Amino acid sequence: VRVGPGASIWYKAVLRADQCENGSSFSNSDTAELETSYELDPDRVETSRFTNRFIGGAIYIGENSNVQDGCVVTSRVNHTTIGKGVTIGHMAQIHSATVEDHCLIGMGSIINENVVVGTESLIAAGAIVPPNTTIPSGELWVGQPARKLRNLSAEERQKLHYQASEYVKVASGQSGVMDLGGNLLLASLRKDLALESETQTETFEPEMEGTEDEKGTKIGNQ
């Protein structure tokens, strides 16, 4: 799974590329170098080193895209490629498909295997796109099974860019989230332990019995 700069994966989203042979545990060589780019090499083909058959691929999330809460993204039969500036709504599913730049995948929709969603297209909430479907650029698809409803207007297509850029801003506000929620107790505990440690390192001089001299300084008995 590779995630581009500015992209965000939200709470309870699941991205599974567990059948991809490019993972560290499936390397063909102890000295093999893993790819580091989040962009897909179009010439790369995933085949099993055991059976020489085609197997699942990787998941690529493009720059400034967002995979919202509860989404499921898999790559069981081929790569799943999400372009740049894509918004994937809550609980949507994408399976071994390609979503090109600046699309919106509506909440609860399902994009099945080998689907291609063209640039600046919109898949309506709850739509189910059948396998092997190609959706041209700039179209609105709805229904179960999904079908073309109409072309998007220039204004609607531009709004797809705006929605993705706004989510980049929302994600930037989550940078300190690990100090929130379930980790509040842990953060508080660490603070208490730090204070306790400081207290234990302080030294106190015991008060000695004796008489005070003219300056009021206590002189200990010998």
Rg measurement, Å: 29 Å
Q: Report the principal-axis shape.
A: elongated
Uncertain spans, ≥5 residues at pLDDT below 50? Answer: 23-36, 214-222
> Going across the major beta sheet, what is the strand order?
2-5-8-11-14-17-18
Q: In sequence order, what are the helices and strands, one letter per element?
A: EEEEEEEEEEEEEEEEEEHHEE
What do these coordinates show?
- The chain is of the alpha/beta class and 222 residues long.
- It has helices spanning 154-172, 184-201; strands at 2-3, 8-9, 14-16, 59-61, 66-67, 72-74, 80-82, 87-88, 93-95, 98-99, 104-105, 110-111, 116-117, 122-123, 128-129, 134-135, 139-142, 147-151, 210-212, 218-220.
- A seven-stranded mixed β-sheet has the order 2-5-8-11-14-17-18. A six-stranded parallel β-sheet has the order 1-4-7-10-13-16, with no helix packed on it.
- The longest helix is centred in the C-terminal third of the chain and has 19 residues, at 154-172.
- 28% of the residues are buried.
Chain-wise SSE layout:
Blueprint: E1 2-3, E2 8-9, E3 14-16, E4 59-61, E5 66-67, E6 72-74, E7 80-82, E8 87-88, E9 93-95, E10 98-99, E11 104-105, E12 110-111, E13 116-117, E14 122-123, E15 128-129, E16 134-135, E17 139-142, E18 147-151, H1 154-172, H2 184-201, E19 210-212, E20 218-220
Parallel strand pairs: 1-4, 2-5, 3-6, 4-7, 5-8, 6-9, 7-10, 8-11, 9-12, 10-13, 11-14, 12-15, 13-16, 14-17
Antiparallel strand pairs: 17-18, 19-20
